[in-house]
Amino acid sequence: MGVEGCTKCIKYLLFVFNFIFWLAGGIILGVALWLRHDSQTTNILYLQLGDKQAPNTFYVGIYILIAVGAVMMFVGFLGCYGAIQESQCLLGTFFTCLVILFACEVAAGIWGFVNKDQIAKDVKQFYDQAFQQALMAESETNNGRAVVKTFHETLDCCGPDNAIGAVTPLWRDDLCPKKDSLLKTILETSSCHKKIDELFSGKLYLIGIAAIVVAVIMIFEMILSMVLCCGIRNSSVY
């Protein structure tokens, strides 16, 4: 005997929420893959300065997001199927998966909040080292010059956030993005430290919004799945 009345409404409401949850998992997976292959981040984070690889802290977070998105899609499908089939076993498994996923999301959120400044700091330190090598380089093929030019062309910036960086477009215009005139180059060129902060803070902001929306949906789903599970148990008694 199937559920009736309000419990039946909860059944279809849970199905709708799980479908939204499944879509949210797909969106997070898509955003994570976009961040993973976005030209701005890949051009910078694939760089190598001598034997030193660019910091990979950002990619650690991206791989976590990819895993979370894939698991969310699986859990969303499990919840949809369990609600339609009115299966206590599937709904119990779904609830357990949600609790684990919610705990992982909170842990990932804390990790991201703690490391958000460190990510940009590591990249800026890597850039500063390359910039110092580029200034002292005599060869056009020097690795430091290649790294710095990749930063400058990708982020449309020139120099670090200090006095040397401010005058770099004047005396090392070979390292900076070309503008129509020298005056335009001086006025429109930003420091690379500022651009790096903007790059990572902007992307982390998008991730934070997605995480909050998903957390709210998960809380509603946990409540609805337990109510539906109890309703199925009670209806089977009669």
Tell me what the structure shows.
The protein is mainly alpha-helical and 238 residues long. The protein has a single domain, classed as Cd81 Antigen, Extracellular Domain, Chain: A (Orthogonal Bundle), CATH 1.10.1450. 81% of the residues lie in helices and 2% in strands. It has helices spanning 6-37, 39-45, 57-85, 88-136, 143-155, 163-171, 182-188, 192-237; strands at residues 48-49, 52-53. The longest helix is centred in the middle third of the chain and has 49 residues, at 88-136.
* Global geometry: rod-shaped
- Give helix % range: over 70%
Number of helices: 8
Average pLDDT works out at 75
Question: Within the CATH hierarchy, at the fold level, what is the topology?
Answer: Cd81 Antigen, Extracellular Domain, Chain: A
How many beta strands in the DSSP annotation?
Answer: 2
* CATH H-tier superfamily: Tetraspanin
Order of helix and strand elements from N to C terminus: HHEEHHHHHH
